[in-house]
Amino acid sequence: MILINLLPHREAARKRRREGFFIALGAAVVAGLLVAGAVYLWFAAQIADQQDRNAVLQKEITKLDAQIKEVANLQAEIAALRARQQAVEDLQADRNLPVHLLTELSTQLPDGVYLSSLKQANEVVTITGVAQSNERVSEFLRNLAYNSKWLTRPELVEIVAGSVNLGPKDARRVANFSMRVRLLRASEAAKAASAAAAASAVGGASAAKAATVPASAASAPSKT
Fold first, then answer.
1. 194 with 102: CB under 8 angstroms?
2. What is the pTM for the complete model shown?
3. Core-most of 43, 57, 97, 201, by most CB within 10 Å?
4. Which residues of the chain have pLDDT under 70?
């Protein structure tokens, strides 16, 4: 018996191919959605993990900031305590400054010079007095500039010629002077003394070295 297919086979084949295409397309869409969902979940998990790490780090940073503030406050308190301690030490060291001032003035005062008044403002001392001549005033200035370890930077303010009556018929010419000098604090005097000692040690070593060179040269045998 002969079977004859009267259905449009081409239309059926086309329909089957169309259905297979849509099925494959749907499967591809589903697979893509699954992959995209998996990737999204993985990134979401990574982001959440990183956010947790950031939260931990932020918490630690907050703790460190608080500790840094505490350290800064402690350093400020230590600096304030050191400043107070230094102020107390300076006051204790400077309480003998009037004694040093009077001692230096009596030591450096040359003959023929008489002081009439002393005025001190902070570290500046104003001295007024009478001298037999201008040369005596110059000698007094030199003594204060080079020989005193507590007084420095003497400055002549004025010098005026005057006269002193020693008797009814005896009048002598004198020089009325006024000068300023700076009184060193105890710490400054100690630093100046240390610098002078170091300079003298360096100078002594240089002089000794210069003296040994000719001696060694003289002891060397001469070549003929």
1. no
2. 0.51
3. 97
4. 1-9, 93, 166-167, 196, 199-224
